[in-house]
Amino acid sequence: MSARRPSDPPLPAGEATGTEAAEPHYLGHRDRLRARFAQGGADALPDYELLELALFRAIPRRDVKPLAKALIRRFGSFAEVISAEPARLAEIEGIGAGVIADLKLIEAAGHRLARGAIAARPLLSSWSAVLEYCRATMAFAAREQFRVLFLDRRNHLLADEVQGRGTVDHTPVYPREVARRALELSATAIILAHNHPSGDPTPSAADIRMTREIVGVLDPLGIVVHDHVILGREGHASFKGLKLI
Prior knowledge:
Low-confidence stretches: 1-9, 11-22
CATH class of the largest domain: Alpha Beta
CATH architecture of the largest domain: 3-Layer(aba) Sandwich
Number of domains: 2
Structural class: alpha+beta
CATH topology of the largest domain: Cytidine Deaminase, domain 2
Radius of gyration: 23 Å
Largest sheet: 5 strands, mixed
């Protein structure tokens, strides 16, 4: 057995020197997690273990369980971790650019899947899919964003656009800009959606006032506001369901 030189890079934690290096303890754990996921899917794993699976690719030679648990402690859930802003993720020791890129890829894939569920169907007959899409794209965002789904005469999706991004409790929205874009797209109806980063989806007085202003601008143009949905970690609120429009 050749001796290690002082200049040699350190071996990863858990690995032994010698011609027959001992298997790092975390490799068996990884195999077991993969097997449980293959057999039972995501429901077979708590959030931190699902997050471990997501970290395996970016961090192949380290026990990532402590890191996964640290992320859950900081952000609250798997969904909130992958939705977190890159700058906030980078505050966690051990999170580098590769990990952040992988987490944001998972987030983007989730958004793309949710959008695919509503892309080719009448939205009003696929309301649960609409809510799931809005929840996936907005519910866990750290700042408010205001989204408009523009619909054609058959209530198929013409465009899904974020009209404004704001602070933790306010997003500037301009009703005439919403109207202008609806006319450009030849939309006959829209669905409004925005998030409350506080987690509570209860409409504020400003939300109600702004929604009624948009309805007032669009109504003379023959463009219907089907609903305004507010998303939060604690659920959602529908203006139509609350009889606010």
